[in-house]
Design goal:
The structure is a single chain. This protein is an alpha+beta fold and 163 residues long. It has a single domain, classed as Nuclear Transport Factor 2, Chain: A. 17% of the residues lie in helices and 29% in strands. It contains three helices and four strands, in the order αααββββ. A four-stranded antiparallel sheet has the order 1-2-3-4. Strand 3 and strand 4 form a beta hairpin. Helix 2 runs antiparallel to helix 3. It is globular and about 50 Å long. It comes from Nesterenkonia sandarakina. This is SEC-C motif-containing protein. InterPro entries: NTF2-like_dom_sf, YchJ-like_M.
């Protein structure tokens, strides 16, 4: 996902307790975490640009559970020329509530580039400004067209356009 100053994405190395592998994967595939994005977070290469995008969404959704591990994952799956510093990826952002894939172009097992358009829903308890006690959390959505490239058999997030 594109770096947003209020909602920085993350990637990392194992550090704290990992998510329950039996729970549903945050990416919305319907699979449990162990059978879905966990294998990518643990080092298996994503077979498609969409699989990488879903795993990066999951890493952002799980960032608060183990910031170092998930921030390192986001960092190593981000193309070097557009990648932010690792330290910029560990700050928790909003609570990610859902992912909907709108479209994919190329990005398959026999492609070297691809794009994924998606909408990610979030809830941000902090909001853009300090809130009054008891005020409702800010809900929103991030609509992005992400670009990916495969290098040495590994899909990488390059950048994206927000709309």
């Amino acid at each position: 996902m594109t770096q947003n100053p209020r909602f920085p994405p993350g990637a990392g190395q194992p550090d704290a307790e990992q998510p329950d592998p039996a729970r549903r994967c945050p990416c919305g595939s319907g699979e449990n975490y162990a059978g879905c994005c966990a294998r990518f977070h643990q080092g298996a290469p994503a077979p498609t640009a969409e699989a990488l995008m879903r795993s990066r969404y999951s890493a952002n959704a799980l960032l608060g559970e183990d910031p170092a591990f998930f921030a390192a994952y986001l960092h190593r799956t981000w193309a070097a020329e557009t990648r932010p510093a690792l330290g910029d990826l560990t700050a928790p952002g909003p609570v990610w509530r859902g992912l909907r894939i709108v479209d994919t172009t190329a990005g398959g097992p026999f492609h070297d580039t691809g794009s994924v358009e998606f909408v990610a829903s979030y809830q941000d308890d902090a909001g853009p400004e300090p809130r009054r006690a008891g005020a409702a959390p800010v809900r929103g959505r991030l609509h992005e067209l992400s670009r990916f490239r495969r290098e040495s058999g590994q899909w990488l997030y390059v950048d994206g356009d927000l709309s």
